[in-house]
Hints:
By secondary structure, this protein is mostly helical. It has six helices and two strands; from the N terminus they run ααααααββ. It has a two-stranded antiparallel ribbon with strand order 1-2.
Amino acid sequence: NFSGNRQNTEVEPEIDFFEDPKKAVQNTIDPQLKVIDATDNALAAISDSITNNNPISFNAAKVQLAKSLGDSQLSRRDVEAAGGDPSIYGKLIDTTSEFFTSTPSIDTQKKIQSTLNVVRNLNAKKASNEIDAQRKIAARQKYDPEAVAEALDFPQLKSKPKGSRTITLKSGKTVTVVEE
Length: 180
């Protein structure tokens, strides 16, 4: 008898690009945006850990690091091809929860920081490629360039000064915070 234990398997309807282009593109690049946000937060925290030898900041970086690696769709080869250290990336993925039980050396933290930058940049590149493809489609369809630019503007993909991070406020607005 199968009647009692059915799970609700409704799938959310796909968002029509023509009805809400920003949301449609955002859904497409959402995995990369989540990784970028988590990576930016991890980078800000690890920067504070390195600068101030702050174990609390390193613990915050660990949480964001695990989140960014968990959401990432990158392989070790992707990281290596982009100039990152695949052994560090692999170690981070394999053992993030147990690997760091205390604050590691500054050298190790800098290697983590470098690898996080590679992860961020690769995800930003993937998302930017999708946005460029959408921009070309919109241009061929003769959409208003200003509306297209607005729909395809994702602040997380813009390069940031060192020591800055992007956060989303409760209001939904995204802002970049520069740490001094």
